Known about the structure:
Order of helices and strands: HHHHHHHHHH
Number of strands: 0
Distance between the termini: 56 Å
Amino acid sequence: MSGLDLTPAAAPAPRASRIRRHALIETRLVVRNGEQLLLALVIPLGLILANAAVGARLGIAREPFIASVIALGLWSSGFTSPAITTAFERRYGVLERLVATPLRRADLLLGKAAMVATIAVGQAVVLGVAGLLAGWSPRPTPGTTLIAVATVAFGLVTFTGLALILAGTASAELTLGLANLVYLLGAAGGLMVPLAAFPPWSQPVLALLPTTAVAEALRAWSGEAATGTFPGWTILVTLAWAVTVVVIARKVFRWTS
């Protein structure tokens, strides 16, 4: 007589494993999406190449410009991509089906957050290496590095929270249009254009935007503000935005269409 216990004992994987696997699936889906790669890498890489080719003749300084391009890429990965993918997942009932699995709602959000962080780190590395090959020579200090890392971290939380607010309240088609429009508005605003280049009356308003804060922190990290005062206000701006949008997203996000 065998002593084996063949009683069914089905159980979900440990929570950390579920979140990690979900994050990997989310990351693969983004990497395979041509439109998301266009916004995250193709356009930023094209801007870096264009700056290397004609930037000097147009009077565009390489250090702040490439830092701005990296900020633009983080904006697309943190806001545009999650907004569009989440909106269509909600429209086609993917989210409500996933909630019926051992994944909790918090697990789904943590998986998306891990995906955004993974994509952002990989994107920053690729764009940074491309910039270095194009002649970029950033001059970071320990202080600017610490503040830039904190600003970018809070900025990514803010971008993702804004993406969930949009995707969780608007239709998929409206989210698609608005996400791409906001991407372009961000690029034309404080992301690609330094704050000091705007009229004085508009600078206090633009300085309150999380996109401007992230871009200014990266530009200062690259050495643009090496002779001046580093804008440490970027941490406060992005932290305030991060706390606010997370609270709002928890209240307004709808899991079904």
